[in-house]
Write a structure and sequence with these properties.
mainly alpha; 2 domains; 3 helices
């Protein structure tokens, strides 16, 4: 495991100390690891949203149309049923 040293400065140090008490973190390390994980998740999600928006723009330029609410609902239900069948099949194969 790598070791990273960082200087927070007095304002961030006070913020961390306050959060340690308020949110019951036992150590600064635990608190900072959680902050890094959450930031990573947020950045990954934002990147995925940007990629989806880019793909949507490509689809529009290629002539694909946005589904109607009825088409969207039908597709959502079909996907849910397909996923349910797949999970049911996997469960049966495990036995």
């Amino acid at each position: 495991m790598g070791v990273t040293t960082l200087r927070l400065g007095s304002k961030l140090e006070k913020l961390v100390q306050r959060d340690l008490k308020e949110f019951n973190y036992s150590t600064k390390t635990e608190y900072i690891r959680q902050a890094v994980r959450e930031l990573h998740d947020r950045l990954t999600t934002e990147l995925a949203i940007a990629e989806l928006a880019k793909a949507k723009g490509f689809a529009k330029r290629a002539g694909y149309k946005e589904p109607t609410p009825e088409e969207y609902e039908r597709n959502r239900e079909e996907a849910a049923h397909e996923l349910f069948r797949e999970l049911k099949s996997r469960r049966a194969n495990k036995r």
